[in-house]
Amino acid sequence: IPSQPQPPQYPQIPSKPQPPQYPQPPPSPQTPSKPQYPEIPQNPQIPSQPQPPQYPQIPSKPQPQYPEVPQNPQIPSKPQFPQPPQYPQTSKYPIIPPQTPQMPGMHPSSINCDIETNVRVPCGLPDISAAECQARDCCFDGQSCYFGKGVTVQCTKDGQFIVVVARDVTLPHIDLESISLLGEGQNCKSVDSNSAFAIYFFPVSACGTIVMEEPDSIIYQNMMTSSYEVGNGPAGSITRDSSYVLVFQCKYVTSDTSVLSVVAEVEPIIVPSQVSALGPVNVIMRLANGLCMTKGCNEDVAAYTSYYQDSDYPVTKVLRDPVYVEVVLLDKTDPHLVLTLGHCWATSSPEAHTLPQWDILIDGCPYADDRYLSTLIPVDSSSGVQFPTHYRRFVFKMFTFIDYNMEHFRKTVYIHCSTAVCVPRQGFSCEPSCYRKGKRDTEAAAQKKFEPKVVVSSGEIILTASKQ
């Protein structure tokens, strides 16, 4: 049996076509974010200033334990001129010892090391060797190293000056309290001192220091000077104090790790050409130069055993040196005659009546307004001369004239005295009365004013630098 026919298959109505697939629109471009710039680097941290080294301590009595000499700090990088240099810590470098302070006419090998133990200032570490001590221009006694009689300048690598000044650096001795630097400030005074030394410790950029630049280095220069006491008289001004000037430098070399210290000393005094001035023939003035040759001898007596000759002039003296003067009456044999001195004074030129002047004797007596009084030296039968009353002797301390602006020294001195011949009689003495004046003394002084007077002068005396 035929199978039942299958129902006809009707065509499928096509489904509604899907809407076309369009490509997705690209997303809107995003606004780029603000570019990230590298951060501005932070200013480098300025290293904290290193602790200043401990300068050498002056020992106190009794024998103290000296502190160790500090280790020199690190070499500084070249500072920004003219700002004070910053000295960051870097690697350690060997330290070059400071150069020897150069003194006029003095070499490092001749530094005077004769210093009392209780005023010595230690130089270097306690276990320093003799070679290291000598390299520092210091003195070594076999056990310890100490500063000698002079000036020592050291430059530390953290930019500090260390200056050690000895009282004996000049003759007469310098007044350590009178020293000053170019500028003033808290650090510009001595940080320690005793009767023989003063220590200065200050930054190289302080106290008026002058800064100079060279292609490969920076130089810090300062100057040390001393003040002096001035005596003012009616016709001139003098001083017996030393005038001290010291220029010193620290040189920082930026091309390597070396640090140098240099000391430049004032030029030595130039001795002028010889000039002599002789007095009248019948009265002469001469300068004595005898020395004590035995222990315990009298220096004033020994001085008049020898004299400067004409060929010895000009005579050179150091400030406060004793100047022994003798005035002699010549060609007279009367033992009753007495040579007298009225006014004795000094000038800076051979002419007796020029200015400036400084009184030495007035009416035969020491000038009372001079701090360093002159001394009359008696002449009697024990003096070894035939007619003692024909001689007058006195001694004064060497000085130098200065201008009224207190700056310029006049280094030549001439001595002048007005002289007279006196005949003593009863109730009248030719000798000056320097301490008490009674009626008779006043009458005698009045009579002397009418005696004929002759002025006699010395040869030239020149102030010279001390010989250490």
From TrEMBL:
Please list the disulfide bridges.
Answer: C113-C139, C123-C138
Q: Which GO terms describe its biological process?
A: binding of sperm to zona pellucida; prevention of polyspermy
Annotated region described as Disordered, given as residue ranges: 1-106
UniProt main location, coarse? membrane
Please name the PROSITE patterns in this protein's record: P_TREFOIL_2, ZP_2
Q: Which SMART domains match?
A: PD, ZP
Official protein name in the record: Zona pellucida sperm-binding protein 4
| Organism encoding this protein | Austrofundulus limnaeus (Annual killifish)
